[in-house]
Specification:
- This protein has 118 residues and is α/β, with parallel strands linked by helices.
- The protein is built from four helices and five strands; from the N terminus they run E-H-E-H-E-H-E-E-H.
- It has a three-stranded parallel β-sheet with strand order 1-2-3, with no helix packed on it. A two-stranded antiparallel sheet has the order 4-5.
- The longest helix has 15 residues.
- The relative contact order is 0.21.
- The model has no long low-confidence stretch (mean pLDDT 93).
């Protein structure tokens, strides 16, 4: 999950997802969520992003992108929030920009984790 600390949609998504977890919900077994803070700007809201995420109670590992946003560029980030789903073998499953509700995320995991046709 790629996040920008100043992005209102990212702020809403982090708060909503953190609340969903606090209600006793969990990611499916075997699913890891990693977050990448990108597009860091010291002159914008919620800087530093580490404090923003700590204040929100964000429980996931966070990678801070380079000043040139190299990680975001490598994954083809097209906006924030930006989601990238990668299978355990490293192949890309899905990626896209925009908010995903926790319920929508659960549906995506159901689809991505469903046994294949062979």
């Amino acid at each position: 999950m790629f996040l920008a600390h100043w992005c209102p949609a990212c702020q809403a998504e982090v708060a909503e997802f953190t609340n969903w977890l606090a209600e006793g919900n969990n990611l499916p077994e075997g699913v890891d969520l990693l977050s990448v803070v990108t597009l860091v700007d010291s002159g914008r809201d919620n800087y530093p992003p580490s404090q923003w995420l700590a204040d929100e109670g964000w429980p996931f590992p966070v990678l801070v992108d380079s000043a040139d946003n190299e990680v975001a560029v490598a994954f083809g980030q097209a906006g924030t929030p930006f989601w990238v789903f990668v299978f355990g073998d490293g192949t890309l499953a899905l990626r896209g920009s925009g908010r995903i509700t926790p319920e929508g995320l659960a549906e995506l995991f159901d689809q991505l984790l469903a046994p294949g046709d062979g």
